[in-house]
Design a protein that fits this description.
The chain is built from two helices and 15 strands. The protein is α/β, with parallel strands linked by helices. The chain folds into two domains: 76 residues; 101 residues, Pectate Lyase C-like, CATH 2.160.20.70.
Length: 204
């Protein structure tokens, strides 16, 4: 079966390599290795930029693509995927299913001043106290109270969610959106879940 995970095109003196949104890391690597010969034939001038677009890639995928290309061509490869997590790094928003993702488990509470970042999902077995930060490329799940900053989908994924035993943070973030959390006078009502619906963060 033909692997169409990667397409290569020359557009206005720029080589565009587009990665399929559904492609796995293994499929990307296999297809890049198959098409490196085509890329070498297209790359005739040292000034021709190579830009990788399409799927938002994680650090491991970015490094592997750079390695495959730089083994054959000495060129600075440009990516439109963010190189860092957070609002400032998001270059485009997208929707990718988060039912399956690499997950980091953290045991214990996060204290004021502590920061936990991961490109996949994060599960924290403890509270996230005020002044602490949790930033995940996918989902955030807290088996405790979220009082600090939580930013899910921190590479732009709008299908990411935040779930906690209780959400008491003054602000939460999903993808490129920010939500100020209003205190409720009803002490029996507890916020436990946040997601994006109709272009805004909804907490329930």
């Amino acid at each position: 079966m033909e692997n169409n995970s990667v397409s290569i095109n020359l557009k206005q003196n720029e080589i565009i390599i587009k990665i399929s949104e559904q492609a796995s890391k293994e499929e990307i690597e296999e297809c890049m290795k198959e098409k490196i010969g085509q890329l070498k034939r297209m790359y005739k001038e040292e000034t021709t930029p190579i830009c990788i677009t399409g799927k938002v890639l994680n650090r491991e995928e970015i490094e592997e693509i750079k390695k495959i290309i730089n083994t054959e061509i000495d060129v600075d490869v440009q990516f439109d995927s963010p190189k860092e997590l957070g609002l400032a790094g998001i270059k485009k928003v997208y929707e990718r299913d988060t039912k399956e993702s690499q997950t980091l488990f953290h045991r214990g509470a996060l204290r004021c001043g502590q920061k936990l970042e991961y490109e996949g999902s994060i599960v924290i077995m403890g509270d996230v106290n005020g002044g602490a930060e949790v930033i995940a490329g996918e989902n955030i799940i807290i088996l405790g109270t979220l009082r600090g900053l939580g930013h899910a989908g921190a590479k732009g994924n709008r299908k990411a969610t935040i779930a906690a035993t209780v959400i008491e943070a003054p602000q939460i973030r999903i993808s490129n959106l920010v939500k100020e959390v209003e205190e409720t006078a009803n002490t029996a009502k507890k916020y436990t879940y946040a997601s994006i619906k109709e272009n805004e963060i909804v907490i329930e």
